[in-house]
Amino acid sequence: MPDMYVSIPYDTDDAEGLKGEPVNSKPVAGTIPRGGHPSYDIPNTAEGYEKAKAEVTNPIEATEENLSNGKAMYEIYCISCHGKKGDGNGYLSQAEKFEGIPSYKDRDINAGSIYHVIIHGKNLMGSHSSQLTYNERWQVIHYVEQLRSDLLK
């Protein structure tokens, strides 16, 4: 009984599958895989931006840990353009690589609109959805909202 000692690997998604019958182990359409998150299907349009602003809310709590990690991610991905205070005066702005980076103080933004911009980008800012995980995006949003609040004081 050699197969008791050396198992035969099967690719369950292969055309052959098990015993010649294919097995579909992919999630059913419309479901969320275990450990996954809902997909973001709001289009990259002006209407989509407004819809996100009106309907999308931050699902994670603004804890000290989330704000701390949001700050760390902001300092990696955002600070070079948006600046340490969120005033649009980051290194790339000072070096005149990009002009017209807005201050968070001057924008009518909320969690939904920020998330939409992180996913799709806006104007010269490209999408950052591949750089940040689902939770990191929301942590950055908490931190950006804190920066905006500080600027408005």
Automatic annotation (TrEMBL):
<feature type="domain" description="Cytochrome c">
    <location>
        <begin position="65"/>
        <end position="148"/>
    </location>
</feature>
<dbReference type="GO" id="GO:0046872">
    <property type="term" value="F:metal ion binding"/>
</dbReference>
<dbReference type="Pfam" id="PF13442">
    <property type="entry name" value="Cytochrome_CBB3"/>
</dbReference>
<keyword id="KW-0349">Heme</keyword>
<dbReference type="InterPro" id="IPR036909">
    <property type="entry name" value="Cyt_c-like_dom_sf"/>
</dbReference>
<dbReference type="GO" id="GO:0020037">
    <property type="term" value="F:heme binding"/>
</dbReference>
<keyword id="KW-0408">Iron</keyword>
<protein>
    <submittedName>
        <fullName>Cytochrome C</fullName>
    </submittedName>
</protein>
<dbReference type="GO" id="GO:0009055">
    <property type="term" value="F:electron transfer activity"/>
</dbReference>
<keyword id="KW-0479">Metal-binding</keyword>
<dbReference type="InterPro" id="IPR009056">
    <property type="entry name" value="Cyt_c-like_dom"/>
</dbReference>
